[in-house]
Predict the 3D structure of the following.
Amino acid sequence: MPDKKDISNVTVIGAGTMGHGIAQVAAAGGFNVILNDVANDLVETARKRIQQDLLKATEIGKLTTEQMNAAVARIGLETNIERAVERADLVIEAVPEKIDVKLALFSRLDQICPPHTIFASNTSSLSITEMAGGTRRPHQFIGMHFFNPVHKMKLVEIIRGLETNDQTFIAAESVAKKMGKEMVEVKESPGFVTSRINAMIGNEAFYLLQEGVASARDIDKAVKLGLNHPMGPFEMIDLVGLDTRLSILNFLHQTLGEKYRPCPLLVQYVKAGRLGKKVGKGVYEYPDQR
């Protein structure tokens, strides 16, 4: 396995909201990045979003034009997963939050990646140990939980699995620092720190809405102005995705008990297809996103 200073090639699997954001901050941090997904239109859309975000960063003075161009040049697109990982020192997974999908992916990656490659999952709640156990390199497996939008949010939760070794942890910490992030070390537990707290806040907000205690906008306003949160719980859940939040709550309910039972109104919104900003409607409507 490479020493922490030797990690230079990062492959991100999954070009959605989290994946393209991780690829962006990795490239801006000086890593050579391959962004992989199953179809050309997915990776091309991700590239356009990355370029738009980097351009905005130059416009407000956070990056120079030269830094923007260098970051864009460091990002390669690849739909063939074998080619995407053939030189990877670190693979960061950002696929849907479903344990069977992640287990199948890491089992395949274990077969095709170089022996030294470190595996990291961007999961917000699932077991790092379980995913690592599906590979022959559990000591080289770690959780790196980024936050949306990745290029703006400073935190990365770094989660050790049962067999994660110190060298892997140090490597992940070094990578996150080069990406400009702050880290917290988290002992593996369902939901880690932030997802567990956020799920509870968002679920309670839905119960308040269901009971007619206040409107969604007034609940958001109360939390922002009364509790000094930068976003209200409904603004947050629309950004994260109601289906993603429901999946996390279902997992926490199964593993931690009744206090995480999803609010019936949240379940109803998901069944109605109100999944958040990504589809143009969630708790709120986003006509420009449709």
Remarks:
- The chain has a mean pLDDT of 95.
- The longest helix spans residues 40-59.
- The two ends are 45 Å apart (CA to CA).
- Residues 110 and 136 are 7 Å apart (CA to CA).
